[in-house]
Design a protein that fits this description.
single chain; 137 residues; mainly beta; four-stranded antiparallel beta sheet; 1 helix; 10 strands; 13% helix
Length: 137
């Protein structure tokens, strides 16, 4: 009986852990007002290319990549350092080095998608974004 209870408990813990979404979070000042925004990215475990991006109390649902691929986090980028605003870039590595990025801008009232990039972008900080691509040979 004790063995059955132990097995049942382990099964419940494992099942619960596998069905829960997972999240990433960071606090950083996105708009140079000396107040850190709380950025949270919750990824749907059942559909891992779907996510909810939340900045402070504002949230946005979106997806990135094809079914079967997985959003694996976000990074803070600065496309143009003269505008005093930083952007949030959500990443999906894709099925075969087919990296994709969704770039979002936040203005205290809304989260706005500003770019969908593939491969390996380089954000220069002067407003230019360079994207490197594999040519297949």
């Amino acid at each position: 009986m004790l063995r059955n209870i132990f097995f049942f408990s382990v099964f419940l813990l494992t099942s619960t852990a596998q069905s829960q979404d997972y999240s990433f979070s960071e606090s950083i000042d996105l708009n140079s007002d000396n107040i850190k925004e709380l950025i949270t990215l919750n990824v749907d475990r059942e559909r891992p290319n779907h996510f909810v991006l939340k900045i402070n109390e504002i949230s946005l649902s979106d997806f990135l990549g094809e079914e079967g691929t997985e959003v694996d986090g976000f990074q803070i980028i600065d496309i143009d350092s003269t505008d005093l605003v930083k952007e949030v870039s959500v990443h999906n590595p894709g099925p075969s080095c087919d990296d994709e990025y969704l770039v979002y801008w936040f203005d205290e009232k809304q989260i706005k998608k500003v770019a969908h990039l593939s491969r390996w972008p380089i954000f220069k900080g002067n407003g230019d974004v360079y994207v490197d691509n594999w040519e297949g040979f």
